[in-house]
Amino acid sequence: MFRISRLPTFAVSHGHLPTSQSPITPKLQFFNSVMEDGKQIPTYRVLDGTGKVIEGAQLPDIDEDFARRIYQNMVKLPIIDTLLYNVQRQGKISFYMTAYGEEAAILGSAAALAADDEILGQYREMGALLWRGFSYDEVMAQCFGNCEDTGTKGKQMPVHFGSRKYHYHTISSPLATQIPQAAGVAYALKRDPSRRGRNCAAVYFGEGAASEGDFHAGMLLASTIPSPTLFIARNNGFAISTPASEQYHGDGIAARGPGYGVQTIRVDGNDVLAVLAAVREARKLCLEEGRGVLVEAMTYRVGHHSTSDDSFAYRPRQEVEDRKRVDNPIARFRLFLESQGWWNAEQEESYKAEVKKEVMQAFKRAENLPRLELQEMFTDVYGGDEPWNIKEQREELKALLKKYGNTWEPWKAELKKYRGEGKELLEA
Amino acid sequence: MASRTAFGALLRARAAARTRAVPSSFATRRRGYATQQSEHSMTVREALNAAMEEEMLRDETVFILGEEVARYNGAYKVTKGLLDKFGEKRVVDTPITEMGFAGLATGAALAGLRPICEFMTWNFAMQAIDQIVNSAGKTYYMSGGNVPCPVVFRGPNGAAAGVAAQHSQDYAAWYGSVPGLKVISPWSAEDCKGLLKAAIRDPNPVVFLENEMMYGVTFPMSQEAMSDNFLLEIGKAKIEREGSDITIVAHSKMVTHSLEAAEELAKEGIKAEVVNLRSIRPLDIDTIKKSVKKTNRLVTVEGGFPGFGVGSEICAQIVESEAFDYLDAPVERVTGADVPTPYAHNLEALAFPDTPLIVKAAKRSLYRAN
After folding, report:
1. Which of the residue ranges A54-58, B9-13, B14-18 would you say has the lowest mean pLDDT?
2. pTM of the predicted protein model
3. Domain Transketolase-like pyrimidine-binding, which positions (chain B) (predicted)?
4. Which of A267, B35, B137, B244 is buried most deeply by CB count within 10 Å?
């Protein structure tokens, strides 16, 4: 009796259910954690707040050039953001979204991907495009919808970029639709012998978007219809005004991964080297296993959600100022670079000045470029033969142009904004 | 133009139902359409199956996904045998999440494949409508023509029998209003084969609205339609029966009732022209206009709700065109009743147009006493 009572209950095997490996237990016990000890999922970190490698952490494989390139792209983001945010405030573009505070989460992950991995962004991932070589002129062309906007041809809101060249899918405004689509893109990659095992589909989304059914469907599909889908959650603490604490009651987004049989890691999203290392490893797993992998990057949205939002209505200005000072991902990485002798104050100053100048030049140029041809209104609604309803609308506009285009002042002035001034429509 | 109230439609449906013993909606189960001697015949189900098989043989990028489309052969057996022929990579069973697998299909299409996404019924596709409308339907335009989305969404649409309101809705008008989508509502086996093949080859997202009640109906197939290169042009209607006295425009199962009505009318010397719409978007308004100019009378027939429907759109386009001047009577829409479809057999029968109701509407248009 004594000996038996000392045995832990789980040592007595009652077998398992016929349809699963779930062991039978006589113990009535609930659980609410995916960790064995019932604690929260840990956060992987490499650099501390002062840019020093924390004890026990290993530096990811990174050389001076690569590190500088990541840093320089991180520095570009707030410079572009500040300019375009103000340009929006002046009414020159309709909308803008900054990435303040999330530079490490975006650049660390982008740098871990192959240049031809497919990216399905949410909207705040312009940094991934910059990393792949998207120019300031291309950024401006899209935001202004001018005649150089080859990616979206003036048919998409600002920052809703798309680029075939850089394997960046056109941003979709309805939240989270890109997540199950990523499982489909990854399925197509798996079907393509030239890309199978070589490329993944990386999908970005916020912790708010992860409340949408699309997130759950996307995770489920990437694991049940296995495809190399890399889920990158930017947990920036806010879904517009809703804090993460009201967005979920469980242990963040990472806790959901194992529920779908998905390999998962939580990482300090303000530590660019941790993000780089975690996403590199996640990508490797994703390709090896041909299944979905989830990375939750913990960060903080320093900026407002978008130009349609004033976040000081729901969070104290001081909180934001504190976060900027205490946990600035750019400063943190700069301290690391300086400690390696890869960057210094002089380079900082000259690089920032150079970026500011170039961004300003690109903005001024974009502002003065004409809009796309007027006929773009009707192109690309359908591929292949054009249906009659499109032709009919074009003819209607053409007839109006013929009648008023050269005589009525408001039309004459308006037409000058378009490349070709509507002539292509009259000749069509 | 007569824009009868929806309640009026219900009342007319009731009045008509009292005049007959057997709801003719059940007649389609018994009756085939082998009116002329034909060497070949096929059920609608077989035609859809053949269309998919032929296109999968022709193009490696075509694949099918949906709930129980593979091992179970599809809820209505439309994908029967395809798993055995093409394997698991191209006939894919998915978990039960419409928004999920419609999203996967959309993503796969954006990445260069040609998915056929089967919904167990279009009623359940409401969960996926954002993927269909906002993503599949708009990405080609919003990507400046850089990213086509060649996906086919298909499944049974409209009312079946005894499955109540949440299984009995017609989505032709919903999807028909969206630029960027093409919408097909086929009737016969030839329609299904030629149009589904065309839909699969089309570079655009296509919404393909089948009808459960038609799956088992047998139709003659021409030699041409048996060919694996048989394609029908999307956006073209077909005159199923020529006539000079009145034009009846219908789609899907309502073509059956319209043809039966034309037969009835013929007994009284009325020559009705029956137009099978085939496509909802683009709508072949030219064929309807031409017919109206000949007959001077128009009745539209559909299984959807009266408001903002396919008939409403046809009526609007006719009155906006030169065909208006040719009308000798108000246009009348014959539609489903403006109530959620009831379950009870007798009420359900009252909720949808049938042959006698179409006969009545046609006669009204011809100012003939009923």
Report:
1. B14-18
2. 0.91
3. 42-217
4. A267
